[in-house]
């Protein structure tokens, strides 16, 4: 049986020979064996016939007129379908040189004349069989190459020194010079992404020095500078003696796969219309948050925001306009959230930032007209309310939809964790119920799930609104409380304490409104007013021919950290004609401890200008003695909580004694505040306290009452006290 290929039943042999007898003999022998034999008389004719016939084997004579076999053979090889066709060169010359030449010009084998025709037929059969095997191998190799090209899979081998060989696919993937398939290792680093360079070097080093195989993903840049992602696998290759001889591996461009993975992930976690994180991703984020222990100082809340009457607009203007509207709202909300995360004055005062309250807002789109905002790390529930109010304002701004200006409003429902629910489902459900409540209350508003939170938010809102008007309506007053020398009983100064006289709510305590003023940034204009008012009062004291007194002013966090504060205060006193030495600035211990280095800098600057500094409420914060030494303060005010029971409680007495001793060793004056009883005063005098402040001498008084009080002060309570003690 002949090893015939499947398309042609009989193998086709092309005989190129000028000798008609030989052609005839070959024809006769082979045709009886089932071959088809075609003939050509010389090289030129032979090339022609090979082109048109696609022979399975070519028998080629060497010596021929017109064109000999040595010349014809290379030209036959150039015909694409003859590149691998076996060529048996028939030579009458039995010399080695001709045989060598035959191979050089591309012959597969040779046979010497005169030919042994029986042997020739067997030889052809073997040639055919090996051609078939070679064809199959080539086809497989091509398939493999094709598959590797499709998979963008390249392979390489590194000799562990500086020489690498690689496949064409590597050349293509790494943008190496065309046709280059070996070279120095540095070729691979040419287009590597700078940030991944170290990672790749380290992996190669470990492979070489520690014989560690690796799989690695890294980035390269193509000619246009676009990033491609490469998956690189490498394995150490050993010789028979288990000595590493090379590193072999594959590289694969996985950019498309990565892109597809990203797209899948995007589809699963982001909303199609707005591109915002969807329900799934918000749930994941919330789950992470509630896996940690709740903080008593920070609030986590969920705001479900639903556009009012969105369906009506969607039906009237069409779905496309509806989608456009949702995208506009999404980008507005997004902008607000990105800005607020960096702390707009309204949400996070500088003080809050210093405390590292990582206020984080996450916006998501649950589909339809429902957006959900996750707030984490808000200082108070009131802050959550003010964010909700801001969201309402943002949505209410007019929206231009291709020339149609429309107005939108939203209703917001709020639930807080863990108060309203300990798990994600409950929290979402409760904020949904609160949303329903907001809708039923007339829309365009926000509602908390819990009634108590609603009440607090309402109270805070009205306080905030009223506070904004209080300066222009002149509702603030500055009260003064005297500070008395503990030994002589003479008045050395006073502390200015703000009062808010509200026409309906009456006197509002600073403890209630100062924190709101801080968080809303209103403390800055209020602080300025206090400062000017205190200067006016000092001038008034002078007009009354009273001995000069110092006034102590409280500085809040936002004021203290306000940029350029020392210079601003310096200018204000100069303008009022007051010496800065007449003003003492009280700063609470806990505020100073928030950012010690910064606090020291500000205090030094204030002192340079001439202000003196008192550390207020000492004992309530860290009471760190080592820091106390570094603060350029002149006075220490012991917090009232230590004074309250000082006459009865031995512990308090020892604490106060320790503070006084320490303060004196640091050359600080000590003020005790909150003295209401003479017994308390007696202890403090004995302990060496320098100044006394409290109801015992006087409640804080308005300007006129204070002046009256000083002028009419006849009895020195110290004398009175001494009389009492003597009894
Ligand atoms: P503070 O600076 O420690 O002020 C002392 C507080 O103790 C004042 O309360 C004062 O009225 C009260 N007090 C004085 N003597 C006694 C006493 O014998 N017994 C008792 N129980 N209390 C006494 P006030 O005026 O309500 O102020 C509370 C806090 O509000 C102040 O604490 C201060 O931190 C802040 N504050 C007051 N006025 C201002 C201000 O003008 N600016 C700023 N930033 N904060 C102020
Ligand atoms: Mg004070
Ligand atoms: Mg105090």
Shape: elongated
Q: Find the count of extended strands (DSSP E, 2+ residues).
A: 28
The major β-sheet equals: 8 strands, mixed, barrel
Strand content: 15-25%
Strand order of the largest sheet: 19-20-22-23-24-25-26-27
Task: List each distinct ligand once.
Answer: ligand C2E, magnesium ion
Query: How many whole angstroms does the radius of gyration measure?
Result: 47 Å
Question: How much helicity do the residues have?
Answer: 40-55%
Low-pLDDT windows of residues:
1-7, 341-357, 717-727
Span of the ends, CA to CA: 143 Å
Estimated structural class: alpha/beta
Number of helical segments with 4 or more residues? 27
Task: Write structural notes for this entry.
This protein is an alpha/beta fold. Helix content is 46%, strand content 23%. The chain has 27 helices and 28 strands. An eight-stranded mixed barrel has the order 19-20-22-23-24-25-26-27, surrounded by four helices. A six-stranded antiparallel beta sheet has the order 8-7-6-11-10-9, sandwiched between helices. Strands 2-1-3-4-5 form a five-stranded parallel beta sheet, with helices on both faces. Strand 19 and strand 20 form a beta hairpin. Helix 2 runs parallel beside helix 3 (69-78), helix 10 (310-317) crosses helix 11 (319-341) and helix 19 packs parallel to helix 21. The N and C termini lie far apart (143 Å). The model is unreliable at 1-7, 341-357 and 717-727 (pLDDT under 50). The structure holds ligand C2E and magnesium ion (2 copies). One magnesium ion is lined by residues 616-617, 637, 673.
């Amino acid at each position: 049986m002949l090893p015939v290929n499947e398309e042609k039943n009989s193998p086709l042999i092309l005989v190129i020979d000028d000798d008609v007898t030989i052609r005839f003999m070959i024809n006769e022998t082979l045709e009886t064996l089932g071959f088809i034999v075609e003939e050509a008389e010389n090289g030129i004719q032979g090339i022609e016939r090979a082109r048109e016939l696609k022979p399975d084997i070519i028998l080629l004579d060497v010596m021929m007129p017109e064109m000999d076999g040595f010349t014809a053979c290379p030209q036959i090889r150039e015909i694409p379908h003859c590149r691998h066709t076996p060529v048996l060169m028939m030579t009458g010359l039995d010399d080695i040189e001709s045989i060598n030449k035959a191979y050089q010009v591309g012959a597969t084998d040779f046979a010497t004349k005169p030919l042994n025709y029986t042997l020739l037929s067997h030889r052809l059969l073997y040639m055919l069989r090996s051609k078939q095997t070679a064809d199959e191998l080539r086809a497989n190799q091509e398939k493999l190459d094709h598959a590797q090209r499709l998979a963008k899979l390249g392979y390489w081998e590194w000799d562990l020194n500086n020489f690498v060989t690689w496949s064409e696919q590597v050349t293509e993937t790494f943008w190496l010079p065309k046709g280059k398939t070996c070279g120095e290792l540095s070729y691979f680093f040419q287009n590597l992404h700078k940030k991944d360079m170290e990672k790749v070097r380290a992996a190669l080093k470990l492979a070489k020095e520690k014989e560690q195989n690796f799989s690695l993903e890294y980035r390269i840049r193509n000619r246009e500078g676009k990033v491609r992602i490469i998956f690189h696998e490498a394995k150490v290759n050993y010789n028979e003696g288990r000595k590493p001889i090379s590193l072999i591996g594959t590289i694969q461009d996985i950019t498309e796969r990565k892109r597809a993975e990203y797209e899948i992930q995007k589809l699963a976690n982001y909303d199609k219309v707005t591109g915002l994180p969807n329900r799934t991703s918000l749930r994941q984020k919330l789950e992470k948050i509630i896996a940690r222990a709740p903080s008593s100082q920070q609030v986590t809340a969920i705001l479900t925001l639903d556009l009012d009457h969105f369906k009506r607009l969607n039906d009237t203007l069409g779905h496309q306009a509806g989608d456009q509207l949702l995208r506009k709202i999404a980008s507005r909300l997004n902008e607000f959230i990105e800005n607020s995360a960096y702390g707009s004055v309204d949400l996070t005062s500088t003080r809050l930032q210093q405390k590292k309250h990582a206020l984080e807002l996450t916006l998501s789109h649950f589909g339809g007209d429902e957006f959900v905002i996750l707030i984490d790390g808000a200082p108070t529930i009131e802050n959550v309310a003010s964010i909700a109010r801001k969201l309402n304002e943002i949505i209410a701004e007019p929206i231009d939809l291709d020339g149609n200006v429309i107005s939108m409003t939203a209703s917001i429902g709020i639930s807080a964790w863990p108060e309203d629910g300990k798990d994600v489902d409950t929290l979402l459900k409760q904020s949904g119920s609160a949303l329903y409540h907001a809708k039923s209350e007339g829309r365009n508003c926000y509602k908390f799930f819990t009634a108590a939170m609603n009440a607090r938010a309402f109270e805070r809102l009205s306080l905030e609104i009223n506070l904004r008007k209080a300066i222009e309506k002149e509702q603030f007053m500055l009260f003064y409380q005297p500070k008395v020398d503990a030994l002589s009983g003479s008045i050395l100064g006073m502390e200015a304490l703000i009062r808010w006289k509200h026409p309906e709510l009456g006197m509002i305590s600073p403890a209630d409104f100062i924190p709101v003023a801080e968080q809303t940034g209103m403390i800055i204009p209020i602080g300025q007013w206090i400062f000017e008012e205190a200067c006016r009062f000092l001038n008034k004291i002078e007009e009354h021919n009273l001995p000069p007194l110092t006034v102590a002013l409280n500085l809040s966090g936002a004021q203290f950290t306000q940029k350029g504060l020392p210079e601003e205060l310096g200018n204000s006193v100069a303008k009022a004609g007051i010496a800065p030495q007449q003003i003492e600035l009280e700063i609470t211990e806990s505020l100073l401890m928030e950012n010690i280095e910064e606090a020291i800098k500000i205090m030094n600057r204030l002192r340079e200008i001439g202000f003196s500094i008192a550390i207020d409420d000492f004992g309530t914060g860290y009471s760190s003695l080592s820091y106390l030494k570094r603060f350029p303060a002149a006075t220490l005010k012991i917090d009232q909580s230590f004074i309250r029971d000082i006459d009865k409680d031995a512990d308090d007495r020892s604490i106060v004694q320790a503070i006084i001793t320490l303060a004196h060793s640091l050359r600080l004056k000590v003020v005790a505040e909150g003295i209401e009883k003479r017994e308390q005063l007696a202890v403090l005098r004995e302990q060496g306290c320098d100044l006394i402040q409290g109801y015992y001498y006087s409640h804080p008084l308005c300007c006129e009452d204070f002046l009256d009080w000083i002028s009419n002060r006849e009895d020195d309570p110290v004398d009175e006290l001494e009389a009492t003690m003597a009894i």
